[in-house]
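Hi all, posting the design record for the shared folder.

TITLE: backbone redesign
STEP: 1 of 1
STRUCTURE INPUT:
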């Protein structure tokens, strides 16, 4: 259902890979709500995914960019504001990658070159993106920047590996840069801590199906889907959340405040 929540608003969507990705769902819903945007992803990800289908569906242009390269981001922001006809109102950072996870390296036996690559892609790219937006004064007042994160930033999920560190770093950057963006530009910056979601990226983590099943049993409302996360993201891009900033917002069916649930306890109680 369209409420025209984002009518006249312009932005950039990072990380739409295929129809399973949260960024993809968010782009579709922004389009439904009257917003316009450019799509961007790393050239290698674009070859793997179906981003051209999304661009066609939403009438959007694609600007390839490696989010770890400042010059790529500068080109992206310049072209996006030119294509869209003005400053931006929203930016979604939906990027995460761990080479250690992909290579099967245990957390206690990491390749630190891979670690550096992982935090550059997953976290420092968010700082680089905001720094370019800030220096170019590319955001409208009361604009909104959102990055996607996961609760492993606060709690131990052993197989999430160094992605947990990357997400903790990402959340810290959101708060620290968000202060300056709010004070100087009246732009809000938040992270959404989403339920474990069966996206293409998420499936690369060992034991991810177990994360999903456990969270489903722990959460009073059940896991939030990618579709529901897209809806929540829209509210943060809208004018209805103008004073929400520097927050890590849990969108997880209540999981983050649970100690234990009846369902989980019953699984461990021996039957008479």
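Okay, here is what came back for every position:
SEQUENCE:
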């Amino acid at each position: 259902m369209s409420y025209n929540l984002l009518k006249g608003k312009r932005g950039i969507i990072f990380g739409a890979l295929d129809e399973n990705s949260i960024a993809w769902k968010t782009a579709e819903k922004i389009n439904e709500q009257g917003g316009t945007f450019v799509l961007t992803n790393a050239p290698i990800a674009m070859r793997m995914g179906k981003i051209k289908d999304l661009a066609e569906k939403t009438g959007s242009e694609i600007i390839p960019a490696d989010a770890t390269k400042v010059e790529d981001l500068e080109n992206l922001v310049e072209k996006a504001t030119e294509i869209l006809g003005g400053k931006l109102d929203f930016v979604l950072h939906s990027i995460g990658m761990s080479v250690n996870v992909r290579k099967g390296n245990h957390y206690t036996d990491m390749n630190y070159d891979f670690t550096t690559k992982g935090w550059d892609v997953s976290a420092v790219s968010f700082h680089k993106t905001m720094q370019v937006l800030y220096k170019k004064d590319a955001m409208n007042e009361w604009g909104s920047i959102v990055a996607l994160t996961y609760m492993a930033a606060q709690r131990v999920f052993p197989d999430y590996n160094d992605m947990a560190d990357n997400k903790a770093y990402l959340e810290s950057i959101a708060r620290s840069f968000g202060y300056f963006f709010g004070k100087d530009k009246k732009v809000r910056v938040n992270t959404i801590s989403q339920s474990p979601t069966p996206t293409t990226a998420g499936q690369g983590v060992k034991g991810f199906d177990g994360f999903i099943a456990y969270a489903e049993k722990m959460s009073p409302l059940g896991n939030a889907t990618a579709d529901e996360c897209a809806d929540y993201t829209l509210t943060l891009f809208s004018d209805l959340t103008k004073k929400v900033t520097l927050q890590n917002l849990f969108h997880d069916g209540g999981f983050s405040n649970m100690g234990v649930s009846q369902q989980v306890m019953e699984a461990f109680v021996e039957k008479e």
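COMMENT: DSSP finds ten helices and seven strands in the chain.
Let me know if anyone wants the other runs.
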